[in-house]
Structure formats: structure tokens, C-alpha cells
Give the backbone structure.
Amino acid sequence: MKNQEAQAIHVLAYVLQQNAQPAKAAMLLEALDAIAPDDTQTLTALAAAQLKSLESARALETLERIGDHHHAAGVVDLLRAQALARLGRIREAQAAMQAFLVRRPKSQQGREG
């Protein structure tokens, strides 16, 4: 699949999520993942759609496929914290949120308050 086609699917999935259709967005992103597996951008968007679809366990499984060492680690930590909190795994959620706060871009640090 060409990069432009993949980006078009990402845009469509985003539009679906913004229009209260995260389950449809997740289906599109699952199809894209089947065609081009283990793409960090696709997996991150898929996990977000799964969270919005209240599929926290599936979102957590998707996030586990990404791992820790990549450019989107902060976003993944935030999504992981949300999924863990929804699953009632509060201590793990707190640790993931702490990791997010440590890894977030320096340009966003110090903006609170």
C-alpha cells in the first residue's frame, strides 16, 4: 500500500472518530494494520479508536504491540494510562501517567497553571 493511501485511511478514521463512530474507525485501522502490520502510527490510532469504543482490553493489547522505544512513547503512555484506569488497574495507570509526564515534549512542560 502506498503512503498516500494509508494516510487517506488515517484521515477517514479520524473523521469517523470525530463524528462519534470510533468502532468504524477501529475497523478501518484494523484493516490497515492487516495490510501493513506493526506501523506505530496505525497502532496508536487503532488503540485510541478502541478506547473511544470502550474496548479498553483490546486497546491495551494493541499498545503492547508498540512497545516502549519509539518516537510516540509519550502518547502511548497516555493511552496506556487511560486503558489501565478503565480496567481498574489504578497503580499501573498511575505509573503509565508518570511515564507520560516524564516523556512529554519539553515544549509542553511547564505550561500548567
